Amino acid sequence: MESASQILSDTGSPKDVSTLVDMALKLRPLRMGRHLLGQELYKAAKSATSELVVREYPSFKLRKRKPHTPLPKRGYVAAAMKILGSPGTPRGYVDVREIARQARDLAILPAASPVPEYWMSVMLAGRSDTFSRSGHLALGLFDRGHGPKVIGPETRRLQLRPGPPALTEGIYERDIESLVAERLDLVEEGLRLVKRQYATPVGRIDLLCEDTHGNPVVVELKSFGGKTSEVVDQTTRYMGYIRTHVATRRQVVRGIIVVGKVDRNLAYAIVPIPNLELRTFQITIGTPGSFELPDDKYV
Question: Which of 122, 204, 253, 254 is the most exposed place for a label (fewest CB within 10 A)?
Fold first, then answer.
């Protein structure tokens, strides 16, 4: 672990987990196999105590299969082929976490691994004849200067041009939803607003959005003083409603909680929930019309 952290610190950029493993083994040879070492690094990145963090997940889609190509009957490759080849799966690239989740729900994974998405990534990446890949399973270092660790894709700090005075809690309650709705690219590049205050039988969704892959994204704002249990319950409840009544079988429903400051309880609470992420923001009042995203937009 120390070797991997040192490599990431020296290079200053995230690394594909397989590349990181190779570089770490050159510095410090171990008896542990490459994939097992990669698993341990990935598990460390998913914990809330390590300085490693997952920066990117790969997505996969099936290639056109050549006639008479033998198909595996079991294993991660067979499970992924069944998921990606089913009529209800999107034809484009699918996040490896969603592939692993569906395979787990169907009980077709080869073993009860605590990190099936890691092994799914490794096995599918090794079958370029069967799968096309977009992105990598990349690890980076968590910047402890910005508070508790948040699991999943990198946390982003939404900022406007610095300038006194700081936005107050009262202003936040009334206006933060509008500010975020008008700057969704700061939450996630390519995010598009579908509807504000989207009414459902289980409550109103602050911002119902759509990502660049056409997947529904539930964006909820955690107010100052709001309880962690309440915002997590709300967001997952809304995700469940959209999954059941709005999304198609081909779509992956995601959730993003936008919060001014991540507390430890919230950081831990989202760890076991697939497709739920956190974003942080910092807003100040400057010259009218001067709102913009500074160079340090990524935490």
Answer: 204
pLDDT band at 209 (very low <50, low <70, confident <90, very high): very high
- Distance, in Å, from the CA atom of 110 to the CA atom of 104, rounded to the nearest integer, reads 10
Pairing of strands 59-62, 131-134: antiparallel
Residue with tokens 């991997």: 4
Dig out the tokens for 116 from the structure: 């099936």
Instruction: Identify the CA nearest to 155 among candidates 172, 142, 167, 145.
Output: 142
Instruction: Please tell me whether residues 234 and 109 are part of one structural domain.
Output: no
Note whether residue 253 is domain-resident.
yes
Convert the pLDDT of each residue in 246-279 to its tens digit.
Answer: 988 778 899 999 887 777 788 888 888 888 988 8
Kindly state whether residues 188 and 210 are assigned to the same domain. Answer: yes
pLDDT (0 to 100) of residue 121: 92
Backbone angles phi, psi at 165, to 5 degrees: -90, 170
The verdict on 174 and 100 lying in the same domain is no
Q: Which residues pair with 267 in a beta bridge?
A: none
Residues 96 and 183 in one domain: no
| Most trustworthy range by pLDDT among 43-52, 109-118, 211-220, 265-274 | 211-220
What is the spatial distance between Cα 129 and Cα 77, in angstroms, rounded to a whole number? 12
204 shares a domain with 275? yes
Decide: pTM greater than 0.70: no
Question: Does residue 220 share a domain with residue 273?
Answer: yes
Angle value at C-alpha 60, between 276 and 64, nearest 5 degrees = 150
Phi, psi of 184 (to 5 degrees): -65, -25
* Distances 126 to 40, 146, 157 between C-alpha atoms, Å: 19, 36, 35
- How far apart CA 126 and CA 123 sit, in angstroms, is 5
Beta partners for residue 120, in sequence order = none
